[in-house]
Task: inverse folding
């Protein structure tokens, strides 16, 4: 997992796919249309969406195998929890068509970060994560973007 300010994205030397993703990300405004954006076929794409944040018991704890997630909030704020994938109990087995496996949340994550406009979080395939969480127990509408990059396109991205 990486957590940093969007303005410092170029401090990470992760290759051309990383540059493509952040070239798109820094161009987004809070009024970006909610839809899927194709940046490089199925290798790099983004989804802009809005939803209400929720308590942990209503959120999903997930991992991916093929893609790395870059997540940021355009409007509002949400918390995200990070878990080590090892030792988690599978709730819904891996679905290749969704590139997702879901787990039971039996405890709090090892790390919890608050994500607001200007902050990004990167989840690698080894990172179990639970986004869309309420901040300080208060639900709010967020607008966010998730950029998916095929993992092998990022230099040094271990799965």
Result:
């Amino acid at each position: 997992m990486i957590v940093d300010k969007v303005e410092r994205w170029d401090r990470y030397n992760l290759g051309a796919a990383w540059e493509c993703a952040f070239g798109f990300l820094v161009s987004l405004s809070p009024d970006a249309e909610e839809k899927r954006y194709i940046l490089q076929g199925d290798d790099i794409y983004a989804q802009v969406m809005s939803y209400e944040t929720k308590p942990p018991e209503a959120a999903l704890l997930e991992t991916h195998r093929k893609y790395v997630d870059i997540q940021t909030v355009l409007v509002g704020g949400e918390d995200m929890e990070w878990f080590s994938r090892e030792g988690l109990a599978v709730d819904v087995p891996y679905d290749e068509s969704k590139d997702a496996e879901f787990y039971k949340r039996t405890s709090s994550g090892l790390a919890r970060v608050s994500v607001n406009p200007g902050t990004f979080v990167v989840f690698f395939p080894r990172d179990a994560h639970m986004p869309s969480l309420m901040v300080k127990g208060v639900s709010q509408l967020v607008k966010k973007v998730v950029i998916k990059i095929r993992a092998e396109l990022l230099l040094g991205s271990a799965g």
The two ends are 11 Å apart (CA to CA).
